[in-house]
Amino acid sequence: MYTLPPIIFYPELKSTQDKAWEFHEKGFNRVVIIAGKQVMGRGRYGRTWFSPKGGLWFSYLRTINIESEMLDLVSLACGISVVFTLNNLNLNALIKWPNDIIVNDKKIAGILIGTKFSAEKITAIVIGIGLNLNINISEFPDDIRKQATTVFNELKHYVDEIKVLSSILKNIDTFLDNINITKSLIHENAQKLNYLKNKSVKILLSDGRMIEDVVEDIDENGKLKTVNGLTLSMHDVLHLY
Ligand code: BTN
Question: How far away, in angstroms, is 112 Cα from ligand 1 center?
Fold first, then answer.
């Protein structure tokens, strides 16, 4: 039987990520922090994350005991978990590696993962998920509106936020509780849902180099493989266009 983690709601926060880590400091090993809105929501690559009322903005803190090389797979598992939940709402979604969720060529959700290490192992993670849920796209600033979509915009009706949250959490825990067993399922789904497959991309690498290549596939460790023979982990990449 699946038991949801404790869920704590705040009407407004700077960022659910920081609050989740505060709970880690207090000794919690499993908690979800959800905010009605965030005033300093963070995205990957140091970007801000537009987080008005109506969206599903949460961070899931859980302890874990995995090698750091598993992080790409963990990240994909979280993306797949969101896709499965969207599929249940009759939305077709894909994953833009490592974990942007795309519907009809537009971003509907993003994932930011923070980690705590101890002796080469990841001991705790905070999975921050931002899903543009019950928001009208007209609320988004012009620059984001061109590249983003929302569940409301796709379905033309509101959906129950708590049902969506519960479904995502259950999916994540199913993958992460037994990652050595679910590894191949994560890989299989990541390949199937790969939005970037055969697409030309520009990649800004962590060492400052900018490369142009074509995405070939995702390997069994969740790394991105390119036609020119590169195998990239999410930490090798600063930006992917
Ligand atoms: C991205 O695609 O760049 C990742 C976006 C992650 C946004 C979520 S919203 C909940 C959590 N709190 C944050 O400040 N960021 C994440």
Answer: 5
